Amino acid sequence: VRYVHTCFSPEFIHIFYFFIHRMSFPFFPLLSHHSSFSTESTMPTTTTKYINTILLRSNLVDGLSMVERSVGGDGVSLPILKNILIEVQGGEVVLTTTDLDLVTRHVVSGKVLEEGSLTVPFQAFSQIVKNLTSERVELEQKEDTLYIRTDNYEAEVYGQKSQGFPSLPQL
What we know:
By secondary structure, this protein is an alpha+beta fold. It contains four helices and nine strands. The protein starts with a helix and ends in a 13-residue tail after the last strand.
């Protein structure tokens, strides 16, 4: 260590430390020039909102059939176009699909317990909802997983954060 300090400038050591530690520990705080740890966080903090809502199965099936026509097919270049964007906000559930040529949105009424958004594969979500027998359906999100619950059934669908879904024009 003494050899490094005598042969290289403090700026070079700091840059070297940055590259070595950032490659192996991306969230590791940087050392200052005085070799003490930084107390400031290098990552911005955000509050994550997770979906939690209760819907009627018939309303959800109607909404899925309305947005089905704009789901990306097998030849899409972006896999997220095969997903449905579920946004729970302001007392309503908004279902959105797009193939980049056509955007379809449908609002489904329901009881909103927590607001949030997530994208899940349309085909998997649609098949699960259409095969449910109970009328009351609860959708709950934990991380990137959407849990679909009824009185006698529970399923989980792995999704992606809504930030990856193509941005849509506001009307």
